[in-house]
Amino acid sequence: MTVHDPSSGFDRDDASLREQLRSVAETMRMPSDADQRIRERMAQCYKDAEQHAVPINIEAARSQRRAPAWLAFVVAASVMLAFFLLVPSGKAYSFEAMLRAIRDQPLVRAMLTQASGAESIGWLRQRGGVVVAVETRDRVVWWDDAQNKPGEFSRTTGAVPAPMDSASTDSLSDDPQMMLLQLLTAIRSQSGDLHWTIRSESWKEVGDLVELRVELEFNNHTSKETTYVFGIDPKSQVPQWVRIESSGITSTVQLRYPDSGPTSLASLGVKLPAVEMLLPKSADSIEVSEPELIASLPTTPAGETPRSKTPADEPNASAAPLGDNSSSSQANPMVATRLAARRWQSTSAVEVPTLTQDMVSRVDQRLEELWRQRSVDPVDPADSYQLTRRLYLDLTGRVPRIHEIKSSLDLEPSALVEELLASREFSNHMATVWSRLLLPEAVDLSQFGGVEAFNAWLANQFADNVGYDEIVRQLLQAEGRVGESGPVLFYTALQLKPDELAKQTARVFLGSRIDCAQCHDHPTDDWTQQDFWAYAAFFARISRPEGRMEAMSPVLRVRDVPRGDVKIPDTEQIVQPRFLGGEAFAEQPGEALRRQALSKWMTNSRQFSRATVNHVWTHFFGVGLVDPADDFGPHNPSVSPELLDELAEFLIQCDFDLRELVRVITSSGAYRLGSESEVHSADQLRYYAQMNTKWLTAEQLYDALMTSTRSTQSFVATDETMTSMMFADTSRAAFIEKFKAPRGSAIDYQAGIPQALSMMNGLLTLQATEAESSGMMNALSAPFFTDSQRVETIFMAVVSRPPASEELDTILPMLDSAASVEEKQQVLSDLFWAILNTAEFSTNH
So where does this one cross the membrane (predicted)? Predict the structure, then answer.
């Protein structure tokens, strides 16, 4: 059928008409409560009619209406037809539909944060082992199907867990953990008794989400009605958050759907014998190991401190009792005696390819699996110009020169990677990257040779292709005078303090934030105060000055000494060394081998390899497989545990050669994707289906500015001497100090207004763009350049690409209309200045 449109003078076929009707229909959806609102309005109309009724002549009315009756019928029928055609009911949202969507998720993670800052983490697994549990720092509660009531296990006492009695259950009905557990039982898909009855439900669209309001009455331990308001993503149909309203208390729970998590109560530290009695009879087995969670608490006789069994893969481990020292009898027995339940994952190897290209294929395979699981499509690959600029910034810390761009267009990307990896600039840039990780912010090492001396030492290590594990061993075992350049500056920067060294080494080398456990047990992770100080004890026996570190003589020698201990703050309890997430260190009296033992354990730990891989991945993608990169744990699982483990094993197999790891990452399909997308998708960016845009660091910005402007201060550090000169460059150091931003994610803008104003009006920018002082502007004044070539040169130098046709169409008329050579130079100078101040120049995309 063809419909003729007399107003337009052309015919539209069915497809065109259907498309218009569909467009109209999608913009005219009826709300879910439309039926109720219509009924209420009709009732009000009847009421109004009764109040204002007047006598009428029925026969007269009939005679007046009879004539146009056919017309009224046609109009009414047309209106009804249009209503049903153009106003469909739209997408329906209901509690049952939401449960079906949740059923497709392998795991649900719910987090409730109280006003005090205490957190409760809830887990719901419905496949591969049923888990309905909530954990806090001190306890685990779960729903026991066999007993039809909650069970509880104390992590503090390690007491045998048991189902709660009715009195305990009733008293906990408003407890945050029980509220969270009740929520998980409500959204759990299970056969038989659902434990609740729906009293009412309704939904409405609020911004980008749909709010589904459900009132439930539970049929188990409490008869209270609870209202849940779910914030549902219309695309996936799964809730992103839920607001709980019960007994006048309102709590908001964040919901996430990770790929990995606990597969049993044993994974949460609940003792195995008790779990076997409390699990449903249908459970055939209990899994203990997890991708991110660690082995369960061991069975310990009542009254004793829980202590894990010694894993076979932990070197220098023994079953020496914790805190076994002469002062222990004076220590407060209630202070810091509990050890964390969490342990690092087993060091058992995974099978990985031995050839680099095969490992690249494995990475691509894992990411394609991740994209399918997350229902995301990768964007188109980056073009040659974009990829060349990205590789130069990531591998050398600067933008490419024009001749380097043109020569790279004839190379395969892998060949360009090899060329850059072989350059001294790669070593220098890696030194800058790792120095930012290793040294604390705003550290002043000026009296000890400066940060530059530490950077120069690191650059030499990377230039000599020293394995990263060996670099870390040199750092952990460093000895020498504090004024000497080299690894000892790592200790100098951290003021030789055991607590500072513990925090920094745990973050960088193990990817774990133990800072909060320094003064008390960690509020959101499993680390305890005992764990923190037992780990810090490895740095207790180092020679250090008396009094303030700032007054220390540069000739003081850092070395191991046979005496020195740490104590729990505000107590006399001495803590013996214990590997973080591992076992106690068996130390003989008078020995000074703590740091050697730590470095051996550290660099042989699979967690060390995981953390290293994650740091390198974060550098290239802006977001780590675990993000933040220094926050590994069950509360923050990897987006792809398999990929993380396989890359960690690959790094071990290639003797911690970071260049091999870089080859794999930069050759992957994900790294070579574009950074632009027609639609904004957070999932595309998070799961590496689109390259994140990263802001340049202060060091990158300076080097890029010097390279782009052809400054006389710019030079390529090709050897050790020139590397030292580059790091000691006072102009560079001053710029970095001014543009240094607080450390954070590379994808977030960390600088501020002063930096932006300095880029626009600073002396460096003015010298680089003014015709009288700019090397670039002087070069562009050559008579053999056409205006198009001049514009292209500026674009290639600054943003590493030729100008787009619309950009040329805007700029060339301005140059053509210039009345003099000087005016044309001013137009080019303004263009140069403008592009230098764009986000395109200040970002790596």
Answer: 69-87
